[in-house]
């Protein structure tokens, strides 16, 4: 499997991050990993959405695709 890493900063733009994850998640053979500065829930800029970082960006050794969401 290929890994698409989505870095989500604090107060990220939900449309960008979720749109990226949904689009690349439809590509056969890809898995999406949400990462942040720390593990746990990260609030969006609007405060209505939270995504959970499963790892920190420092934990990532390699990625086939890296998306950096705006914050």
Explain this structure to me?
With 71 residues, the protein is an alpha/beta fold. The protein is 17% helix and 38% strand. It contains one helix and six strands. It has one helix spanning 14-25, and strands at 2-7, 30-36, 40-43, 50-53, 55-56, 65-68. Strand 1 (2-7), helix 1 and strand 2 form a beta-alpha-beta unit. The model has no long low-confidence stretch (mean pLDDT 94).
The number of helical elements comes to 1
Most strands sheet: 4 strands, parallel
Derived from helix and strand composition plus strand pairing, the structural class reads alpha/beta
Estimate the helix proportion, in percent: 10-25%
From N to C, what is the helix and strand string?
EHEEEEE
Low-confidence stretches: none
Residue-averaged pLDDT = 94
Shape: globular
Gyration radius from CA atoms, angstroms: 11 Å
* Count of strand segments: 6
Strand order of the largest sheet: 5-2-1-6
Strand content: 35-45%
Distance between the termini: 29 Å
